[in-house]
């Protein structure tokens, strides 16, 4: 039992109840059963943390078992990557097992089921079988081969095994109940013929068991006590138990399947098919691209194993599917990196700054703290000289009052260094600033204890000495999708939401202490974010990946877009009250610009659906959303919603009607669909 008092999730409560009802704790055994047909993703990380976490809590073994029953899609590469990911997350398995370890036993059990009249060989096409299965409201009917003799079934099954038939010629089905309300129980498929080379068994087998047949029996052979699956397997539990009933020996532990909710992550996809599409269609560079939701991609980006484990524990286990905002994952990353990542200085959009009163040829090595969160991290020396680089955005020649960075006549502090004041700029023929000239106060060195060093200034800037700076390639990664749920919108391809700005490559300068940085070393670039050395980095060319910013820019952007929608709705009320055509045109142009700037598809779509009602302001806003947004169209609504919207718009205020006519002129499909309504009005 649990060694300490804590609130139990429902799966832990099930285990505790089983222990109370007589299951010996020594019989507890769990498993993580991936199919080696792709790389593991963030959803798998939660499942790994669940199963191995239970193993740690109960001091019980956890098997790593590969469900390698489909040689058409499985490769040794994926087996190796899965093992690597599980180990990197910090877990060790008791035994490495494969469903293919049990192919002979599964075959032998199938022979016994055929002898008992509980399985048969079916020779129909998949289309014929699907038609006979019925529907959720109509029972299935028996096929012509359901009552084949035992002898014929055994003969055909052996010949299937021996490779005498082509793919698809026959299958083996369990003989259960073609009228069951659970369609999975209507004589489910157990075996299919596949003349494919298997990554472990080679060409020994020409038939391969289906997941439902292999999975529960593998659990039984390994004496797994609790087989934990996601909710889509809930309908499979009845079949899982039926198969166990056929082979169960009451002297052994009977595995128990229980289901928990999949925890989907916003602004990403976790379907292996969709992840593969991103790779094969070159939206990303590979399975370990730092924008991918794969564990290998997140590791390469700089996520830590501890942060992923913490994320899994934070979201917990639930009985209902839920969409988890990726901001929570990013919070877990920041929280961990804040403790462990050394602070360094890097300039990713550099402009040269010359301190005109600093002696030429002089250099100083200033003391800088490595990590204020870690008292044992110590200090390092950073070089300072007359010419340095600062961020271009940290300077404005003529700055507003609330600009707390460098401008002409204004003082700022250089991190770990001196107070400087902007004096002049040098520009190119296009008016772009190429150099900033400043002066420094020699008495103002940070930490020197002088009166000048205590002087309060508007802000502090990071910098890098140009004479000592190391050039580096910095890959600025952002969320791969602009929408929080890119694969759930009717009529939309998830690829429509790929973020065109998910990767920007810039050429930066970093402080010389980073010269010895190696793959997966992590740093906080001060005032910018957390960065990790990429595997492409070499001794001659440093490459850094942006892991996460210091702040959640997407949350700020989301709030800004919500405010644009709310402000636009308020402005529409003023639009109706205005007596001047000119004023109304100005208001419409301003709202149109707001709408055109919106990128959050879910926000736009929800705003459209909310504003299809009798309120004239709401109707006008819905018309303008459809007119001025490039991300939403009338067909995103159901047919009855479209008809309601069109009818109410044409019966509303004159200004709303005019907006709908304008929309119809823009979209010929609307003109065609509502031709009669338009003629009547």
Automatic annotation (TrEMBL):
Keywords: Aminoacyl-tRNA synthetase, ATP-binding, Cytoplasm, Ligase, Nucleotide-binding, Protein biosynthesis. One of its GO terms (biological process) is glutaminyl-tRNA aminoacylation. InterPro entries: aa-tRNA-synth_I_CS, Gln-tRNA-synth, Gln/Glu-tRNA_Ligase, Gln_tRNA_ligase_bac, Glu/Gln-tRNA-synth, Glu/Gln-tRNA-synth_Ib_cat-dom, Glu/Gln-tRNA-synth_Ib_codon-bd, Rbsml_bL25/Gln-tRNA_synth_N. It is an enzyme of class 6 (ligase). It is found in: Cytoplasm. One of its GO terms (molecular function) is glutamine-tRNA ligase activity. L-glutamine binds at residues 67, 211. Residues 27-338 form the Glutamyl/glutaminyl-tRNA synthetase class Ib catalytic domain. Residues 341-441 form the Glutamyl/glutaminyl-tRNA synthetase class Ib anti-codon binding domain. Pfam families: tRNA-synt_1c (PF00749), tRNA-synt_1c_C (PF03950), tRNA-synt_1c_C2 (PF20974). A motif ('HIGH' region) lies at residues 34-44. ATP binds at residues 35-37, 230, 270-272. GO terms for cellular component: cytosol. Its main location: cytoplasm. It catalyses: tRNA(Gln) + L-glutamine + ATP = L-glutaminyl-tRNA(Gln) + AMP + diphosphate. The keyword Lipoprotein does not apply. Monomer. Belongs to the class-I aminoacyl-tRNA synthetase family. This is Glutamine--tRNA ligase. The gene is glnS.
